[in-house]
Amino acid sequence: MADAGAFGELLRRHRHAAALTIEDLSAASGVSVRAIGDMERGRSRGPQRRTVAALADALGLPSPDREAIEVAARAGRPRTGTAPSGGGCELPRRVGDFTGRRAELDWLERLAAKAGDDGPATIATISGGPGMGKSALVVHAAVQLAPYFPDGSLFVDLRGMDAAPVAAGAALSRLLKAFGVAEGRIPHDEEERAGLYRSLLADRRSLIVLDNAADEAQVRSLLPGGGGSLVLVTSRRSLAGLEGVHQLPLAGMPPGDAVQMLRGIVGEGRQGDGDLDVVAELCGNLPLAMRIAGNRLLSRPGWTAGHLAGRLADEERRLDLLSAGDLHVGAAFALSYRHLSARAAELFRRLGLVPGPDFGAAMGTLLTGGSLDDAEDALEELVDLGLLQAPYLGRYRLHDLVRLYARARLADEEPETREAVRRRMNDWLLDVTVVAGRWFEPAYGEPPADYDGLVPLDTRDEAHVWLEGESANWLAALRSAAAEGRHARVVEVAGAMHWFSDRLVHWGVWREVFELSSGAANAVGDRRAEAVHLNYLAWALSYCEGRHQEGVDCALRAYELARELGDLSEQAWALQYAGLALRGIPGSNERVAAYARDAVALFSTAGDWDGYYQGMGAVGDSLRRLGRTDEALRHLNALVGELRDPEGKGTAYLREATMGRTLARIAACHVADGDWLAAATTLRTCLPLVREHGSVVEVADRCYELGQALHELGDIPATRAALEEALAGYRSLGDERAETVTKELASLDG
């Protein structure tokens, strides 16, 4: 067997023979200067295979020399999983079918490679909720990183979720014994133990794994001062109070890795494994849940993945099914739940009622009835124990399986309050939705003076942010109201959403919203409200979903209802929406123009000036579509004059929004005439108004059109700027036009 110290000697000899400095070899191989220096000094005696290969390639070693240096590196690698001298701190058995976490493992290896003798020891915390696979990750990493730490690896389970976690002094005693310190020489004083521990690590390169830490106080004395060691600390808490540490918050596995993990457990080629992606999704991509699901499949050869997925689809039974032997997902959650304060435990149970994937802090206040400060403290306690995620500022999220556990706890511990809390939550969601939505209605605006909905709605932007952020929650509350037969409430909420819906046409929810409201109006026999909401539904069908003929049919049903009622304004809106839908049906331009003219006449007679201006814009657009661009330009420019008239009628806010769309239609006429300068000038005037009042897709469309006009004018820098803004908008919507814009931007470089 080769001498373990031979690798450093061989490396130095070959480097000198190649007339390279350490810096030269580092640049050629990609291996750090510090790492090469450690190898040559014998500090790192067994680097990993890919490191040796990179060095050999950089040195240009022939086969015999290359083989010799590889043999020397292998000889210098300590056996994996061994502690310096026993003491009960050996690494536990690693998972043989460990899958994924490539980014996290690479991050840990970079830390290991940078660990050096000068400066403080390297400390990393790996935090995450129950079942996230923290321990499995660090044990797997410790085995892979062993070559970086010739003085061995140590492992201590701190049992942080136990009723009595391991005391820091007891952990220090175990570590000192592992380093060969006799029982009688271990100091009785904890500070002295910590000092001895730090002195032993000062000239060692060891890997210390402190698993399942309770809190910062438990691990602080277990962290070495200086030296080349690496300490990995896992915890359900973030341990944010530790100073000078690297932090790795662990999230669920990506879907592809999750499926690969299941496949690694059950084996390749198992019948029905095409449904493993469904099993992974039902497990929420949580490693512990997938381990259990895989083990259940493995122990039941007659089951297919589809069969297990069918059983897991039942939310009431899912947590019970996710158990195998002594592994149980619910038990993992229970460990954290037992550590909660009474206020946080109550909030956790009630958060199981929240229907959407995430929510704001005000939801916590509403569910418990306390102050916002108390709710935020409880939410942060839940985050700290891994039962709640905080994906971004001010928003919180429950993992799907944690949500089921919270619901189970609520059913067991608060059965008498569950329905009352759910009803209070839904009422609050619908109340705030109405107030926020009315910010965008011409007849309302800012909230009434007595508004107290827990969330600030002092500006239109604040209202927009709340409606978008809580969309899944207020929509679920609206569905509940409809299912409970609260028809007037459904009509009220959907009505408040009408003007706001123009800003987020891509959402994909508006057809359902206005189907619920038109059905509710019909159920209570309110024919006028039914006509109004059928018109809204016609818009959603055609403009939002491209179901144009259905949109036409829906609008004409609204027209017949309004005509029977003698409601001129609603008849006009019905014709307006019918014309909008017809634009998507080839060969309908004449009919579109006729509907637009009739709508304008009805709006004028009814004195509905907001509708009148929009109808006038539709007339101009229909003239352009008929190829009568000169007439369209005269008509649209006259409309611009009316909209700019300080004595003009209608709502100022809607006149500005209509101005933006009218200018866009004028620009389209200039494009049809090939007048690119006029088109670009008009679009530049139009864009500020569209940004203020239009939807994301409208802004993207106007930017794209501006880019086309500027390209025709040969202004490449301005073209690029316009197309980049269009691309950002399309990408945010997942719009397939992003690919077209990307190609056009690339062509500008050619």
Describe the structure.
Among the domains are: 6-76, lambda repressor-like DNA-binding domains (434 Repressor (Amino-terminal Domain)); 102-249, P-loop containing nucleotide triphosphate hydrolases (Rossmann fold, 3-Layer(aba) Sandwich), CATH 3.40.50.300; 255-325; 333-415, Arc Repressor Mutant, subunit A. It has a five-stranded parallel sheet with strand order 2-3-4-1-5, sandwiched between helices. Strands 8-10-9 form a three-stranded antiparallel sheet. Strands 6-7 form a two-stranded antiparallel ribbon. With 750 residues, the protein is mostly helical. The chain contains 36 helices and ten strands.
Keywords:
single chain, 750 residues, mainly alpha, 434 Repressor (Amino-terminal Domain), five-stranded parallel β-sheet, three-stranded antiparallel β-sheet, 36 helices, 10 strands, 63% helix
